[in-house]
Design a protein that fits this description.
The chain has 8 helices and 12 strands. By secondary structure, it is of the alpha+beta class. The protein starts with a helix and ends in a 7-residue tail after the last helix. InterPro entries: IRE1/2-like, Kinase-like_dom_sf, Prot_kinase_dom, Ser/Thr_kinase_AS.
C-alpha cells in the first residue's frame, strides 16, 4: 500500500510539473491563464440586456403567433453581443449561449475629427447608443453604424443652431476611435406617458405651438425629422415639449436609412406636416386649423 501511495504521489507531482511548465510556455507565447478556465456568463440578469424584442407572425386564423426573440448586451467596455432564440420563455442559460460578439464596425462608426467629444458624463444625461433592435435584420450592412453617425452629424448641426423645442445635445462618447453613444439632455417623461398618466395640467395648444415652432426651425435648416410621434416628444420640467430622436432626421430629398413610416424613402417636410396633423388629432380629436 505504501508503494502504491508513493507512486500515486509521484504521478501527481509529474502532472503538476507538466501543467506548470506548459502554462509558463503558453504565457510566454501570449496565451494567458484564462484559456484554461470556463468563461463566466456575460448576462447575470435579463434586466442587464440592452434590447429584448419578441417577433411575431400572423397565423392562418389571423392571430399573432410568437416566432422568435432577439436580444443584445453591451459590456462596460462597449463590446456588443447580439443573439436570437426560438424559445418563447428565455432563460439566462439560453441567452448566454445565444449571444455572439459583434464587430465594432457593424454598430459603431469611426468618429470624425470635427465631432464634439465628451470624455466624462454625469448621471443626469441620457446616452443614446446604436439601434441594436434592428441588428438582426441589418446584420453585416453597417447601416446601424451609418445611422448613428448621421444622427451625430444632425445633432451637431442643430446644436450650432439651437431651439428650445429641440433636444439638447452635448457631444459623443468615443471609445476605440468610434462613436459609442450620443450624450443628450435627460427629460422627465414623453408626451405619450404624460397623456396616459393624466394631462390635467398640460396646455395642449401652448405645447403643440412650441413643438411646431421647433419643427419649423428644423425646416429652416433644410432638415426634416421624419419620425414625429408622441413617444419622440419629451415634456420638460416647465411643460415645454421637446422633439427628440434625430435618427431619421435628414436634409430634404436625402435617402432614409430608418423612418417613422416604412413607405417613406426620402426626407420630406410633408412627412413632418402630416405627422403634426395626426398628433393634434390624437391629442384633441379634431383637425388643426393649420400646420
Amino acid at each position: 500500500m505504501l508503494g502504491l501511495a508513493r507512486r500515486a504521489l509521484g504521478f501527481t507531482r509529474s502532472v503538476v510539473l507538466w501543467f506548470t511548465g506548459n502554462i509558463r510556455r503558453l504565457t510566454a507565447a501570449g496565451i494567458t491563464w484564462f484559456t484554461y478556465r470556463v468563461d463566466a456568463p456575460l448576462v447575470k440578469s435579463l434586466g442587464d440586456l440592452r434590447t429584448l424584442c419578441n417577433h411575431n407572425t400572423i397565423n392562418d386564423d389571423g392571430n399573432l403567433e410568437f416566432s422568435y426573440s432577439t436580444f443584445s448586451f453591451v459590456t462596460k467596455e462597449h463590446t456588443v453581443y447580439c443573439g436570437r432564440s426560438l424559445m418563447r420563455k428565455l432563460t439566462l442559460e439560453v441567452v448566454n449561449e445565444s449571444l455572439k460578439p459583434v464587430a465594432d464596425k457593424d454598430v459603431y462608426p469611426e468618429a470624425p475629427s470635427h465631432i464634439t467629444r465628451v470624455t466624462t458624463t454625469e448621471s443626469g444625461f441620457f446616452i443614446k447608443g446604436p439601434a441594436l433592435t434592428f441588428y438582426d435584420e441589418l446584420e453585416g450592412s453597417k447601416k446601424i453604424a451609418q445611422s448613428l453617425l448621421q444622427e451625430a452629424e444632425m445633432l451637431e448641426r442643430i446644436e450650432h443652431n439651437p431651439h428650445p423645442n429641440l433636444v439638447r445635445y452635448h457631444g459623443c462618447q468615443v471609445y476605440r476611435g468610434r462613436i459609442v453613444g450620443l450624450v443628450l439632455e435627460r427629460y422627465p417623461c414623453t408626451l405619450e406617458e404624460r397623456m396616459r398618466n393624466g394631462s390635467g395640467d398640460v396646455d395642449l395648444e401652448l405645447g403643440f405651438n412650441g413643438l411646431k415652432s421647433g419643427v419649423m426651425h428644423l425646416h429652416s435648416l433644410g432638415l426634416a425629422h421624419n419620425d414625429i410621434k408622441a413617444s419622440n416628444i419629451m415634456v420638460g420640467v416647465d411643460n415645454t415639449w421637446i422633439l427628440v430622436d434625430m435618427g431619421s432626421c435628414r436634409p430634404f430629398g436625402e435617402d432614409l436609412i430608418m423612418a417613422g413610416n416604412p413607405q417613406w424613402e426620402t426626407s420630406s417636410q410633408q412627412h413632418d406636416k402630416d405627422a403634426l396633423s395626426e398628433l393634434w388629432i390624437w391629442l384633441t380629436d379634431r383637425k388643426p386649423a393649420e400646420v
